[in-house]
Design a protein that fits this description.
Elements (H helix, E strand, L loop, with lengths): L5 H30 L2 E2 H10 L13 H5 L4 E9 L11 E7 L1
Antiparallel strand pairs: 1-3, 2-3
């Protein structure tokens, strides 16, 4: 489903945000246990490969996965990478670990 307006996209984001963040945290936990740390790009890629992202929402909610939970701690490191197909300019994203 493609949204027709920003308002429609924001309504979908609000509707799915809580569910997406919780699913992303489960995946983030898996990655941290396996690798010691992770980032939103890795989480997004796994969610996409598992079919958890249906194209109805953008990826602006990803920052909240780690930032809005005291369970995680920013390592102080950054990695290069856009998060998702709609981000064209390269940017730095934070690396996270368990607090």
């Amino acid at each position: 489903m493609k949204t027709e307006s920003t308002a429609e996209a924001m309504a979908l984001l609000k509707k799915y945000r809580y569910k997406l963040i919780n699913e992303a945290r489960v995946i983030g936990d898996e990655l941290i246990r396996k690798n010691g740390s992770t980032n939103t790009r890795e989480v997004y890629d796994i969610m996409s490969s598992r079919g958890l992202l249906d194209g109805n929402v953008n990826n602006f909610w990803l920052g909240a996965v780690f930032r809005e939970n005291d369970k995680y701690h920013w390592t102080g490191d950054w990695v290069d990478g856009a998060t998702g197909p709609n981000i064209h300019a390269p940017r730095k994203i934070k690396v996270w670990e368990f607090a």
